[in-house]
Design a protein that fits this description.
Helix content is 59%, strand content 0%. By secondary structure, it is mainly α.
Length: 146
């Protein structure tokens, strides 16, 4: 995978909007386009993104296969969308587990809640809450529609 592809993945993982992303490129290299940069400059951009929290995952890493249950896939998709929209600061899997825990086992600190193991009944309030969070975040950000 080349540096341009990795930088685009990092942009998505960090949830950078276009203006913030371009400002980062200019701040690090003085150029606003990856294609105009040298390989060394792209590596500098990648290093800055790593400093901001981007984690490079190797093939065969810890990623789990997608669930066959549509409501579980919906939870993960909404979680990522909320993170990109800025409604959720920490888009990690651990944070999603904590979020689901509040709906499934509130007050019980001994129970861990894996979103991939929820029943459809348990997932329904989680999905509705995520939909509302996503809608509020998109309503606050007028650039989404453009």
């Amino acid at each position: 995978m080349n540096t341009i592809q990795i930088i685009n993945i990092a942009k998505g993982q960090l949830g950078l909007d276009e203006d913030t992303y371009r400002a980062l490129l200019v701040r690090v290299t003085g150029l606003a386009s990856l294609r105009q940069m040298s390989e060394r400059q792209r590596i500098d951009v990648l290093d800055e993104m790593k400093r901001r929290g981007f984690k490079v995952q190797q093939k065969g890493g810890k990623s789990l296969p997608p669930s066959t249950r549509p409501y579980i896939r919906m939870i993960h998709a909404l979680w990522k969308s909320c993170h990109r929209a800025g409604a959720i600061e920490n888009g990690s899997r651990q944070a999603l587990r904590a979020f689901c825990h509040r709906f499934v086992a509130p007050g019980d600190d001994k129970v861990g809640v894996d979103p991939d193991l929820l029943t459809q009944e348990q997932a329904a309030p989680v999905i509705e809450a995520l939909k509302k969070m996503e809608a509020r975040a998109k309503a606050r950000s007028p650039k989404e529609g453009k």
